[in-house]
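User: I'm putting together notes for a lab meeting next week and I want to include a structural view of one of the chains we've been expressing. I don't have a solved structure, so I'd like a prediction I can at least talk through. The sequence is below, exactly as it appears in our construct file.
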Amino acid sequence: MNSTFKSPHAHVQKLTGETRFVEDISLPGQLAGGILRSPHAHARIVNIDTTKALEIEGVHAVLTAADVPRLAYGPTKYKDWNIFAESEVLFIGDEVAAVAADSKELVQAALQMIDVHYEGLPAVFDAEEALSPESPLLHPQTEQNRPMHLQLERGDVETAKKDAEIVRGGRYVINPIYQGHLEPIAALASWSEEEGITLWAGSHIPYRARETYAAAFGLPEDRVRIIVPPIGGSFGAKYVLKMHIIAAALSMEAKRPVKMVFDRKEDMISAHPRVPLKMDVEIGATADGKFVYKDVVVYANAGARIYWSPNIVATACTRPDGIYHFNNVRAEGNLCYTNNSPTTCMRGFGNAEMLFAVESIIDEIADSLKIDPAELRRMNIVHQNERTAHGYQLDSCKLEECIDTVKKMANWQRRDSLPKNRGLGLALGNHVSGFRGIDPRFDGSTAVLRLKATGDIEVETGEIDLGQGLSQTYAKIAARELGISDQAIIVKSGDTARHPFGIGTLASRSTVMGGNAVQLAAAEFKRKLSAFMKELYGTEGKWDERSIVVGETAHSFKEIATLFRMKNAGEELLVRSTYVPNTELPDHTYYGNPSPNYPFAAHVAEVEVDPDTGRVKLLGYWAAHDSGTILNEVGAISQVNGAVAQGIGWVTMEELKLEEGRVMNPSIMDYRMPGAADIPDIQVSFIEGEDPHGPFGAKSVGEVALDPVPGAIANAIAHAIGKRGYSLPFTPEKVWTLLHTEESK
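Assistant: Thanks for the context. Below is the predicted structure for the 745-residue chain, given as structure tokens.
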């Protein structure tokens, strides 16, 4: 049931509807599960009565906080999670109780019969307001509702401000948006005294999830097994989830398997959206356009618990400084608890959010100095072999080539002669290919290659395919190293009891980290198999598609597998290789070289704005990328196309509407995402060149493809209408208001 890729039929099952997601998996004796959620943003739980729910025939378990361990745990160093709310609920949707029953209908009936008496408490929903002494304290162990307070400075910003001849900036606001994955959150849990907890769940960091879930129950990690079926998308949503833990708790109580599947409404109400940010950003430059400082204050809304929001704050405060020489930088990050649903990461991971502000301000400086925006960027960008302000070592960087290429692609010189209400906007982006700080204990990846009795060569990895084509890329890496077709390669992952440990699919790490491990394992596999052939036949032979040719005789991989097992007491030919990058754990000031390599991109968007309605139409989009060697061109182009489409939705239409912590548009009918008619022709170009630290010279592409999108579209809109917006999304109402008011801030 775990994720498997076998070329060339990787996508046939998905296209024919045969792929088995969590919802398609069933176990004998399986029960349905459901969660009772708080209707209040902040309230004291006075009493819970589950008597009537337990009396319903077909109900096998009803759980509250009184029935489960009450241990401090969580996926990060902030251990503020619980299984169920005990004395207070902290947001609308907080988990109060759960039911396992013979059917979904019985689950709903039992949930309605649970009587909870609440006593309302004051609530706070705004991150800045949460810092006020008058605001309710959500977690007594945390002062000022601020679990994280980041402060850093490189250089002397106050002195640099005196040297700046032009200063631009403002407050930029990032909207909460839903990841919009096709497959809603789902889990199937099974408990046994012999095996412990087994979870079939769509996590793309299953080993970290295993650690977290074991801590929730006070179990050793080897008593929790997570099997990851094919995942129908995530974009950051499916890391570590309370629903998985509650499904396991119900199975432990009922002594039967329990499946829980959210419908879209529950998924959106309880989802953990992109972290809303308020960012006060200021950039200063000399009269000839040289940047002299950047000063940032960030207010981030964590919601009621910590998921991955600390990483978002740290990234927003540092990552864009890997594109430009600002010379002096200062950042303050405030992560604040509120009575909103907990927030988490989404593609771009804080970098795309801050780049929206940075790229907007750079265009404002360019306009004021009457310098071409592309030229102003070129004057200030980083280059190969440089070390950035926060310690990133750029052993490859083709950012300048990206700018030149995207200008040609978009015919940039026509920018000053466009018709009224048309605009071209340019923005740059950068990212990492893994990040050492994701898990301070270790970095890297492990791969196993084995020769199966069938003659197939199997690759096992701990990294997880989300549907982005990762397994296909690994097959191509192994095949390229072995000198054979990827049709002979099977890639398997997604079982913490069977496959190698993996940190998981996040921080754009999978191609470089996992790919390097696969390449190392494939090289060792070829050496070992060649040595075996020499032992048998006196020569290593010549590798062919599915055989090794010795003289005029072709020995199939199936035949060789049989011979190897005969010579080795039935054991398969197997190698295990671990790639450990020469990265640095950032210090307490966030300085270090945390990634093996760094991708870059330059994007241009063309828009047309309807002055009567404010509607923004994308007319064209061009993207030039430095992602090193492109291992899977179709997959890489698809990643860029998907990221741009996602960015268009984020910037022009998407937003979870919250009123006092309540999601007001929890359906795809009311939460609009872009369709085919909203996406223009997207042209993609890769500036290829080998990076010394990637598999065959590759760097990442999936997240860097989103990072420039908000800035490029925002700059195109500003160019089209002569006014600038500071708050996403740029809906028709907002753009119309900009057009018809004097002030644009």
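A couple of points you could mention at the meeting. The chain has 18 helices and 29 strands. The first strand starts at residue 3 and ends at 6.

User: Perfect, that's what I needed.
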